[in-house]
Amino acid sequence: MTTSLYRDTMAHHIWATERLIDACAALTPTQLRAPVPGTYGPIIATLHHLVSSDGWYLGFFRDWTNLVEEDTELTLDELRTAIATNGAAWMALLDGHIDGERDIQETGEGWVFHAPLGFRLAQVVHHGTDHRSQICTGLTSLGIEPPEIDVWAYGEATGRTRGEDLRPT
After folding, report:
1. What is the pTM (predicted TM-score) of this model?
2. Residue 116 near residue 107 (C-beta atoms within 8 A)
3. How many CB atoms lie within 10 A of CB 23?
4. Which pLDDT score, from 0 to 100, does residue 3 have?
């Protein structure tokens, strides 16, 4: 079966976000809301923004109602459910044909912005990586070892990579 070149990219994006949400489940409300200088903000606010933006980006690719509005406050369980739902939508989208050069136009009061779908998909991944890194910084500042969420850890956890021992026995 041939799959989209973006499938592993987006699967990692969702997997890494779910792992961070799971790691944060052990935090107290005070820890979740602690300031994290030099980042988007407290861990819970950054997670909320990451998941909300993920749903917002989906709206550029398909008819989609964002499950997490930016100005609401949700629990970690609700955020995990939302990112899993977003993830299923991303995978379904990637199973179809995407014209990466199709121009998407946004308009606002006195402005118009154009960007092709392929560029917007790159932004989804970059945005998630940036904010997951900030959440890891927040965990580290609390003295908590963040989970391994890099692409190699994803590959190992999902069986997408493998090593072979070629040393003589």
Report:
1. 0.92
2. no
3. 19
4. 67
Look at the alpha carbons of 86, 106, 45, 125 in this order and tell me if their dihedral is positive or negative: positive
* Low pLDDT (below 70) residues in the chain: 1-3
Answer whether 132's CB lies under 8 Å from 20's CB: yes
Compute the C-alpha angle 126/131/132, nearest 5°: 95
The two three-digit tokens of residue 74, written as one number: 């949700």
Instruction: Record the tokens describing residue 92, joined without a space.
Output: 């379904």
Burial class (CB within 10 angstroms; exposed 0-12, middle 13-18, buried 19+) of 108: exposed
pLDDT at position 2 = 58
Nearest to 39 by CA among 124, 138, 127, 126: 138
User: What ranges make up the beta strands (E) of 3-120?
Assistant: 103-108, 111-116
Taking the alpha carbons at both ends of the chain, their separation in whole angstroms is 36
